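ingest -> fold -> write
write: protein_1
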Amino acid sequence: MDAVLTAMVEDKIGPGEQGRLFIQTAKERLAFDYALPMRSPVTALHLALKAINVTEGQGVLLSALSPRYYLTVINDLRLIPVFCDVSRDNPCMTCDTIEKALAEKGAGLEVRCIILHHTLGFLPDTAAVSQLGLPVIEDISQSFGTFRFQDKTDEDSSDSAQTEIETEADKCSLPLGNFCIMGLEEKDILTCGGGALLFSMNKRDSAALKNFSSIPNEYLMPDINAALGVVQLKELLRSIKKRKEIARVYTRASMNVRHKRFIPLEEGMYNNYAFPLVLETGLKEVAAYARKKEIVIESAFEQTLAGAGLCGPEQCPVSHSLSLRTVLFPLYPRLRSQEVERVSRLIMTLP
């Protein structure tokens, strides 16, 4: 609050010094070559597609569990969406599902790039996808902050725990795409009231981004949002550690229920953005049971292309099935221990 209020009383509250500080702070975590602080992920995706030089009538491959706004941007640029299914074990595209989608695309359609969404914070195999020979736009809005933490005892002091966080931060998973988007919207891992960071990890792709360096201020993130982003970046590792502690409790509670958990690409590599379960029973039945316990759960994929009915079940059957059966349980750093225990009991007794 102090950071935002300070930004509000400055003579200039639009894009400016806080945006530059946000980029500098983010670069310490991500080690990118060049970045632009955008007003929204919609604008960031629009510019990323332009930087790749995708032209009207060319194809863009994307997951059926991508955010709905992807399709809006693609349609606005008069590009052709090529929908891709996901793995049954992990809600991300794989090389196999991508190759299948490419094989089934319309005759004569040139697919120009892949938008690789890190759905629910799970990491796809970006290195393998990059070997397919297509430019990749990587969306880390939900997966940012994926570190591998070593387990410590619950009796660790706050000082030693903080030292652990700082040491283990060196094991952060870094994006590999040509262009990367880190959204800062309500449902993203960092929430700044709106905005996005568009960046590239290498000099070659950064040169294309620098062509947009003189865009009008109306495209750029206001300092009020950037000030909040700076604070959240500095608190990120502590937040990720707290999420892991809560997820550990939920995982123990889910061990003996029949509902399924997703499997991270690599053991221990997950930022606990969410705690999803793929239900073996109807979503309505479980939601009604949760309401009786005065706990709100939500559909994990309601705002995705498959969940909104924008991609037919015959095209992406796994995504369609997951969109009907996957729910999220409350998981955020400020949950009190009593609330965590209530959610844990709910998971343990799910019908």
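write: protein_2
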Amino acid sequence: MLKNFKITLFFLLFLIIVCFIINLNVGYISIDFSSIFQDTTQSTIVWLRINRVIAILLAGIAIPTSGFLLQEYFQNPLAGPSVLGITSVASLSVAIFIFLSQDWAIPEFLQNSFLGIFAILGSMIMMFLLLGFSNKFSDKSYLIIFGFLISALSGAMVSILQLYANNQSLKNYILWSFGANNILSTNQIFILILLIIIGLFFSFKSIKPLIGNSLGNAYAKSFGVNLNQLKYLIIIASSLLSASVTAFLGPILFIGIVVPHFCRLLYNPSRLWHQWILNMILGILIMQLFSIISESIKIPINVITSLFGIPVILIMLMKSKSYTSQ
């Protein structure tokens, strides 16, 4: 089993390297990477493409990890930052900041920081709401319905904000919501890396107690798993990972649901450490492929993830229904 895992991992890593090379060379013009250390137009384009590839790599790590943690904690394959409303509330928080600060003179580096702070605060508020309502719902599938309702409410509030926003703020929000991953600066990349590293640290701390939690609350308590601490580890890790990507790349939808699903098909779902690694590797590969498609046909990446994710989720629902009817 472990040998099969290593073979799968090496094969995926090889595909990732190929996608990196292709992604760096996708664009309007051909570039010479030897100009990377020169102060020319070519070097500027080179760094923009490098930043794009790095940003997509980070999104491929963060969003599937967030979805994986939520699915394992709630024991629901449809749980994820987009379906549970975390991404929508983070988007609403970013919209509030963009529209309310339209007349403020804020330096660019501070504005980028505030985007991240508002997105993280919004996603953490949503996670606390989910965990609070999870104690009231006997069937945790109701959390999915709750998440859809919050997503709809967030969308309505964003529409109201757009109605009263000036043209420039509206344009900034629309560009952000399209997932404009090709305009990140190096400073933004560093902030994104820092937030994701912190999120991955809390993810690492939550995997071992999640293994106990997957066997039931009574079993977890008997082995000394602090379920309350696990709850907060999941909140912090999932919120940081999903909100940081949402803040800088816009809402990347459904990847947090479908990547963990594919990983369970590829390898033993009970081995959570292996599943976590596989989620990050496969997430990077899928996001790089989507970035190549996005840059080639000039369609926003969040549109592509939705076109890919929605049919996969529908197939998952139909398969689960067929299993329960047997």
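write: annotation protein_2
The mean pLDDT is 83.
The chain has one domain: 2-27+35-325.
pipeline exit 0
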